[in-house]
Fold this protein.
Amino acid sequence: MSILRSTLTAVLLALLAFAIFGPITNMLIWSVAETWYFPAKLPQSYGFSFWERVFRPQGNAMESLWNSVLIALFTVLASLAVAIPAGLALGRGRLPWRALFLLLFLLPQAFPSIAVHMNIARIFYGLGLNGTYTGVVLVHTIQGLVFSVWIATAAFAAVDRELEEAAANIGASPFTVFRTVTLPLALPGLMASAIFVFLISLDEFTGTFFVGVPDVTTMPLLLFTASMEGNYQIASITALILLVPSVGFMLFIERFLKSDVLAKVGS
Amino acid sequence: MINRKTSVILIAPALALLGLLFLYPLGYSLIWAFRDEELGGWGLQNFIKSWGLYSSDILFTLIIVTLSTAIIGALSVAIGGYLTLGENRVALTILRWLYRWPLFIPFVVAAQLMRTFLAKNGMMNNIIVQAGLMEPLQAASFLDWRGIVITFVWKQTPFVALLVAGAMAALDRSTIEAARNLGAGRTRILFQIVVPQVATTLMVGLILSYVVMMSVLSVPMMINAQTPTMITVDMAWRINAYSDYGVANALGFISYAMTAVIAWVYLRQGVREGGNPA
Amino acid sequence: MRPKIANLFASAAIALVTAGAAHAEGVLNVASGGSQNMVDYVTDYLGPLFEEQNPGWTVNVVGTGPGNAGSQAILEKIKAQAGNDAWDTDVVVMTQLKTGEMVTEGLLQQYVGDIGTGSLATRDTAKVALGTDVEGYVMPMFHSQTAIAYNPDLVSNPPASFDELKTWTAENKGAFGYNGIKNGMSGVAFTAAWMYAYAGNTDQLMNGPYDPELKNGWDAALADLKAFNENVTFTPGNAGTLDMMNRGEIVMGPVWVDMFYTWQADGRLNPGLKLLLPEPGMPGQPYYYAIPAKAENADAARKFIELATSPEVQAEGIVKRFNWYPGIDAQHVEGALDKAVWDKLFTDVTPEDLAAKGKPFPLGPFFDDIREAYELKVSN
């Protein structure tokens, strides 16, 4: 029985690994393929010439990457700053038309933005935000808002009220209850939303073009054009480059989460 | 419970940001959906035209996205469930390390990878043929609706699974242990104890995934060569080929309505059950 | 938040502020609504050349992607700042359709008369873009052409005309692939070529005058195309056609000549593949250099375009390094190149072929009619 079960687990895991790493292996191979065409099953020749092309001095790849990461970090901060209070109000508050508000926050993702960007750009030009980092961070924050607000709402709604009441009963002020009980319990959800917002910002293309260009350029602006038109080498290299800050951010969040949450829950 | 006044103050910054930087420009754009160029007035002409030209695409989009959401839901419950209830330490470590990777691949790149992976002579079929599991002649291309679903599931499952697994990990273990002591099987514990408690998070994750899939342009564009195709492709086409913002916005409106109806049903249902959903 | 993290964010904030201020004094902003190779052309070749000749200036280029979608993004960005006094984009590189729209909307300025190379481009496409009068507003960067790519190892006797192509696809089901009309311009070009071949009134379709009644006579051609589509494989996009050729899933399909050469150069396409232009021909289009009406650095933009359309740059950059057909008239370029390079450009498609079978896209309103008719009667 247990052997059968272990075998089944192993087979399922192997299938999952194939499903996940099949395409990713494909990507790794393409990133170092110099020649690869029919009928060859694997590249006819390998090399790093496309890496050289991406990182050539005129290409400004490092500067764009740095921009991308900073913008993503600030987008996370900005969206948490507005989403935590909003999530608290939506998850725990007494709010008229609560459902309507939640539906409104879905809009920036749900309405395909292709028709909206021109008008966003018009308003940003009017406000003098075009070509500034603030403008790009704001436009990314709007895109990430649906994730940060909805997830924060769910996280706060899931916090066990009895724990809060217990804290309030022993005389803790509302803010202390929030800081020591509610926030730590909601933190895993909030951190997950931070990861998603970070990724959205890192991959954002169109909003950055309308609001940031020509003064602010990010990695996707530099490389997505090549990716979109079927340059598999550049597409793969782009993904690999963006993987570094993404995974780094996630690991950072998880460390941060473990040490801080455990410390607070324990005290 | 936070009182009404404080609630309004707390949500104000987010609403202000959304209103000024998104709703206001969106309104500008949405107005064109109700503009009737021929009459020079207002009307539903653009919606009639959208339906006439793209009704099959609208249905196609609905089916694809709903199907993908269902598969994503099933897979993420399975992954989250195993992470919570699984006992084999090695398998747990592998799974935990494994499932998240697609999260970090941008949609544009994921679409490109799937295009070369799922094609008739793509890497997947090559591997299966090399492994002797299939004859070369049986190789078929998945670059149609199946390719879109596969790409969506591949990219979005880690997203929902991450949320669900997080919520499951935060559960009070005592009920699970109690049920286990009473001899309940893992499947039963998963569906009767664990899933109901994380239902909110699961639904939120699925709705967010649904929203994302509705608005992605690159995946249907790069993977699906057939007609029908998804609404976003038609929107881009109306604007790029004809500069027709009217029909494009009408399509965007329809696309949003399809999301809003689902989210609304979910929110209403939660209210009826007396909880505070989302 | 712990102090260490706070410090990190503080230093990041400072970096953000200073990075914005660190730009050189003269920055010429170029927006290119074209493929990556068009962006690389400016980044690696034209930009550095301009910077060398104009010390103090920096060229900054951003690409928005190929086809009308990329040009549409540029158009919208310019339109969004129409109320401002100085626009942040100095040179735009765009498709015919979108350039025409921008001229109509008054978003571009006339400059061709002010630059020394203005008289070197005299082809029709330098004056009229799909029926819109753009004379004085544009200089062609290069001309590109669609053609049928095929694998000579598998197709020993390639079809020389659309009639032969019909027979060939009926005999080789699924071996010909194209991308319909929604997924990129090579499929649109193929459809337009089909209409040139079978809808009649070919000259009128290309040169006008527009007649809204003409589309009523297209039913037979469209029904024929629908039947033809039964025997073809649909590909996802311009790149999708090349991609399926790359994997041997189709052996023939319409492609952009410059993309075809780029893919071969990048190792993603069998170097043995060939091109042909079937009777009665297929459309091509130039990409245009234009200057937005209120470009902040219009003088530098003129200098930039003057350099870009000089015979030397057209010879060395456009033809020799990037395999495009020149934007200015061929006789000015041919002299600046050695014969071997010139001939390489015309290996598969000869200059005579190009002159006889390289067509423009249909007149704007006809073009719209063809696309809508396709949506209604072929793909529906």
